[in-house]
Amino acid sequence: MGAVEVASRPWHRFYESGVPVAPEFPTFPIYGFLQRSVERFPRVTALILASTHPSFDRRLTYAQLDGLSDRFAASLIRLGLRKGDRVAISLPNLPQYIIAAYGIWKAGGVVVQVNPLYRGNDLAFILKDSGARFAVVFARFFPQVAEVLPHTSIERVIVTRVHDFFPPLFRLLYGLTKAKKEGDVFPPEEKVVPFNSLLRGPRLSRPVDVSSEELAVLQYTGGTTGLSKGAMLSHRNLACNITQMRHWLTDLKDGEERILSVVPLFHVYGMTVCMNLSVAVAATNIMILMPGGFVARMVAEAAAKYRPTIFPGAPPIYLAINQLKDVEKYDLRSIRACVSGSSALPVEVQKRFEELTGARLVEGYGLSEASPLTHANPIYGTRKVGAIGLPVPATDAKIVDSETGERELGVNEVGELVVRGPQVMMGYWNNPRETANVLRNGWLFTGDIARMDEDGFFFIEDRKKDMVNIGGLKVFPREVEEVLYKHPKVREAAVVGVTSRVRGEMLVAHVVPKDGGDPRALKRELREFCATHLAPYKVPRRIEIVQEIPKTVGIPKALRRLIREQEQSKGETETDEES
């Protein structure tokens, strides 16, 4: 175990009691957390594959998870895996994900995180760029993988079906009635290896010896430029971030918690908070079977049935729960704490969710390059509306000028947020130029525009690339979106800047209303509402009433780029001011 020296900072006085400024960090690789938990809590339920069906319930204990991951590791080595080899995992949230990840780490391999919905160029790029020799994929998505295999270094594709870990009766019924129709069958391909066949051999006698400084995960991200790059996260990076999160959630009880895993594990937030933190504290990981994607009602029903205590998520997830019809009929009071990540947490979403559950929902902040957590509001202590919170233990942060990044700014001055700490990545895989651009003198340049107040709380104003310049005046879409969310008729909102011949750029808002009605009347109402809450140049020039806002796959957040492209094609021929 090793501590990190940390200088005194203004935010330290707002740490909750028991949160250390400089915690002791483990020096063992990630699989060490599983080893510790199985030693202490072998019979505690590690995983639940959950369903709203009253008879559907598949559970694995920590002893079983340890054994299955051992067998998976030993089988990988027999297939030819060598220490440092990359293995892609392209799966939804299923027990197979966690078995595979810990098996890969025990075998000395590197996990390559892949969104299972990727196809074509996106999928081919990650598999080729990472140099992965093996891939663990979902049977129904195998055709997308097969299409790009000739362009990769993949030697074996380990295929698993959705029902591989169903309870026995359900597995049999699904296999007989639905598997073929849904594509949950093993393709007759030479490179294909059934997932379950790797769980039948002997256990690994001992994990491959891996240094904590060695590579554990390639997490592909758009980063600060939008171009896909593999953030290299070491075992130490991940272990430190797990420890930081463990301390921040001050009342976690080892062997007693239940974590609701709705956030995709292929996302770095899901991997760290839902998977690795769960294993580290011997919690029960509740994985909801949602074959068609996120369904708020299924989440509410499962939460009422399985009684989670911790519910990591993102604003659209909490918003969807809030807006469920008759949501009050579900007992969600078991939920104690939630940390929201991925995008800004609207105040109204936070308040409503806390009213429904009695839980504390706080906003946090992170990025793939930092494993991901760097900031969070105290769970039970002082929190500030609109703030991403305080730097977590052993993390330093400051605001620098966004032009050169060389001048540190003062209290409440707006510039680029930079951070440093033991959770910050090693660099970008095979990309020294981009690495040098974002890692400078030990600091990670986040690409986010922010400010720090006198107490050391940080506030994100917006993405550096999303900042809008209106006649020389800077506007951050987030502040306009916050105003729109306060209007009682607004369900969702996204604001972008598009090119304007007169102003340089102009603001356009896309709004999803809560109910129907006259779009023209709602536009006028929203424009007047904005005018009473914002400076004139911050009022959207055009407001569009839409049925949905395009979002990223995984942890959903607004795809401003697509909205911007759509609006840019319209030009300035129509504005609300003119209509």
In short:
With 579 residues, the protein is of the alpha/beta class. Helices cover 29% and strands 24% of the residues.
Report on the architecture of this protein:
- The protein is an alpha/beta fold and 579 residues long.
- The model has no long low-confidence stretch (mean pLDDT 91).
- It has two domains: 30-393, 3-Layer(aba) Sandwich (Rossmann fold); 467-568, GMP Synthetase, Chain A, domain 3.
- The strands form seven sheets. It has an eight-stranded mixed β-sheet, sandwiched between helices.
- The protein contains 16 helices and 28 strands.
- Helix 4 packs across helix 5 (142-148) and helix 11 packs across helix 12.
- The radius of gyration is 24 Å and the shape is globular.
- Helix 3 links the parallel strand 5 and strand 6.
Number of helices: 16
User: How many domains make up the coordinates?
Assistant: 2
What's the CATH first level of the largest domain? Alpha Beta
For the sheet with most strands, the description reads:
8 strands, mixed
Coarse shape: globular
CATH superfamily of the largest domain: ANL, N-terminal domain
Radius of gyration: 24 Å
Percent of residues in helices comes to 25-40%
The N- and C-terminal alpha carbons lie at a distance of 65 Å
**CATH architecture assignment of the largest domain:** 3-Layer(aba) Sandwich
As residue ranges, the low-confidence spans are none
Order of strands across the main sheet:
9-8-7-5-6-10-11-20
How big a fraction of the residues is strand?
15-25%
Give the integer mean of the pLDDT values. 91
* CATH structural fold name of the largest domain: Rossmann fold
Specify the structural class.
alpha/beta
